[in-house]
Design goal:
single chain; alpha+beta; Immunoglobulin-like; 4 helices
Length: 203
């Protein structure tokens, strides 16, 4: 599979809406690719800047060629205010990775790779600005695990779950199927699809 390194540095945010009236804002940022939970990464919490937090945190992903060819695959940066009773959503920045890649190629890795974007609420209202930089590495070929290897891995997980359930008496969630006659191979295939999904846009 053709892949490349995608690096993003979350620098800071300015003039964020104060979503916490009585206490200090403590803001962190979360990054995903296309909103996929398996790609979720986050910064530390800024406890000093309040509505003007600073992080200077760099994150790296290995992304597939699909991510730089498809306009619909976005880098999603979401800002939250940390609270004891549940973190509060501030806003987000969505940018197609294809757009970032084209800008990177045109800039030859120069200062144009630093962006300032509006942080948008869920209804499209500006909640401040986010500053971040990004870059892309060279294309490399990564071999994905074969289907046989995935089946062996899933089978090992199934065996471990059954062992724990038997020895410790704990209830482990194991997929149930309408057609039990299709056997263990079918069960393992279902576990691969359900428990071990791999998005095509990441490596």
């Amino acid at each position: 599979m053709e892949c490349k390194t995608f690096e993003i540095k979350l620098i800071s945010a300015t003039n964020l809406s104060d979503v916490r009236e009585k206490f200090k804002m403590k803001v962190y940022a979360e990054v995903t690719i296309a909103g996929n939970a398996k790609t979720r990464k986050r910064t530390l919490i800024d406890k000093a800047g309040e509505t003007n937090p600073t992080w200077n945190v760099t994150m790296q992903y290995m992304i597939g060629e699909l991510a730089v060819q498809n306009e619909g695959i976005e880098e999603v940066i979401t800002l939250y205010c940390k609270r004891k009773l549940g973190d509060r959503f501030i806003g987000e920045v969505r940018t197609p990775i294809k757009q970032l890649y084209e800008q990177h190629a045109n800039a030859n890795g120069g200062s144009a790779n630093i962006l300032t974007r509006q942080v948008q609420s869920s209804i499209g209202i500006s909640q401040g600005e986010l500053k971040f930089s990004f870059g892309f590495g060279e294309t490399v070929t990564i071999e994905r695990p074969s289907r046989r290897k995935k089946m062996l891995t899933a089978g090992a997980v199934l065996l471990l779950n059954l062992t724990i359930s038997t020895v410790l008496g704990q209830v482990i969630e194991i997929p149930l199927f309408m057609d039990a006659g299709r056997g263990v191979d079918f069960m393992i295939e279902q576990m691969i699809e359900k428990a071990l999904p791999v998005p095509e846009f990441v490596c």
